[in-house]
């Protein structure tokens, strides 16, 4: 081998998002309505992982008027400090394919598995994505187009766009119409998924808003008995 340091353990970290756009079906099942809705579940599941890790108790899912989706949680916020690559950790999470399910940083391992793994796939398949992280009193923002960063770092750091007394992560993404055959989320499927997720996580509250179409919908999901009634 030309480079003896190039082993199985760091292959995943070197992989960009090109394979995802080349073969989207391999990552989200298909490029139809099912795959489209899968994007929401991938982002949602990362916030649920943060809940399982013992931090986030509230998640908000908004289907925006412009066809994008926003997921907000009150977890610790995806770390923004510099990763050894020299990039903010959140940018590494959102632009690196963790194909093997292995991320070379203990911080990213949780009881539920791995944090943020699917979010880079969603980023790759979105015409636009923005992430805002509230941490350490600041709100940091990063932006992407089809998985590529569009925000200029200042001394390697993300811009601070506001102040916050809270922590959490907000991700907004627009599924790429160049990839998907459908661009309107299936609201009923999403509502079922949110209901199920609350059923399985009795201490989790999920706020849902559908702002598309002529009749907006707002639902608060919370199942304090949930699955506990069966065990
Ligand atoms: C790794 C470490 C820490 C937080 C997260 C991941 C995290 C990821 C996501 C994805 C969606 N919401 C999230 N919230 C948190 C925290 C590490 C620390 O503060 O010590």
Main attributes of the structure:
binds 3-[3-(1H-pyrrolo[2,3-b]pyridin-5-yl)phenyl]propanoic acid; globular; 11 strands; 28% helix; disordered N terminus; 9-stranded mixed β-sheet; Heat Shock Protein 90; 231 residues; alpha+beta
What does this 3D model show about the protein?
The radius of gyration is 18 Å and the shape is globular. 28% of the residues lie in helices and 26% in strands. The relative contact order is 0.19. It has 231 residues and is of the alpha+beta class. The N terminus is likely disordered. The chain binds 3-[3-(1H-pyrrolo[2,3-b]pyridin-5-yl)phenyl]propanoic acid. The site of 3-[3-(1H-pyrrolo[2,3-b]pyridin-5-yl)phenyl]propanoic acid has 14 residues, from helix 4.
Helix proportion? 25-40%
Bound molecules: 3-[3-(1H-pyrrolo[2,3-b]pyridin-5-yl)phenyl]propanoic acid
Strand content: 25-35%
The SSE order reads HHHHEEHEEHEEEEEHEE
Give the mean pLDDT: 89
The CATH superfamily is Histidine kinase-like ATPase, C-terminal domain
> How many helical elements?
7
CATH class: Alpha Beta
Layout of strands and helices, then pairs:
Elements: H1 8-14, H2 18-22, H3 24-28, H4 33-52, E1 58-63, E2 69-73, H5 89-95, E3 109-110, E4 113-114, H6 119-124, E5 126-135, E6 138-145, E7 148-149, E8 160-163, E9 168-175, H7 187-200, E10 205-210, E11 217-222
Parallel strand pairs: 1-10
Antiparallel strand pairs: 1-2, 2-9, 3-4, 5-6, 5-9, 6-7, 6-8, 10-11
The structure holds 3-[3-(1H-pyrrolo[2,3-b]pyridin-5-yl)phenyl]propanoic acid (0RA).
